[in-house]
Serine/threonine-protein kinase (Tetragenococcus muriaticus 3MR10-3), 220 residues
Amino acid sequence: MGLENNSVNVEQSYSDQARGTIIGQTPNAGEEVVPGETTIVFSVSAGTEQVEVPDVEGDSEAEAEESLTDAGFEVETEEEFDDTVEEGNVIRTDPSGGSTEDRGSTVNMVVSQGEEEEEPEPETERFTVNVEASFKDEEDNEDDENEDDSASQTITVWLTDMNHDDEQYEQIVLDSDDENETIEVPVTVEEGEEATITVQRDDEEEVSRDVDAAETLQVP
């Protein structure tokens, strides 16, 4: 039986169905009706309701969240530092205020943590340690007529401080004509801490000392 003898009404309502889709009817399909005496009502989807996003920039987090949820949105919040927006107030939203979005969609809200505080630099001590080294007669016989005039020794200084991690700082070569050589080692440490200076002659460690002030290390 057709609908030509019955009146038909169409009602629209918001839904997640595509606009124009029939989402319901009264009477239901299959029910018997009296021709000419029954009104058929179709419920047609008007699509998802569009809602304007409230402008909440500068509002407190609580006020902004209330405004957005009252307008029908879900809210997700994140924080970031900002030196122009008071701590606890909204910096921006995405989508931004004034735009039109689906009811029930999510608005991302960024809240200020205030101005980021810079970590203070540690107090440091800076001083110089002088490392004095001279040629060492390994046979302890300076009068030996057979002494090799071309003999040499390598002095290597290793440093551990705020700027060095057991790194080679300097290396010099001494020969039998060198009476004394001084290596200046600038040292930087946090206040109350120590640095470590290690001195090698060739491959043998001669001195290793923790230092916290200017001094002179004698290499035997």
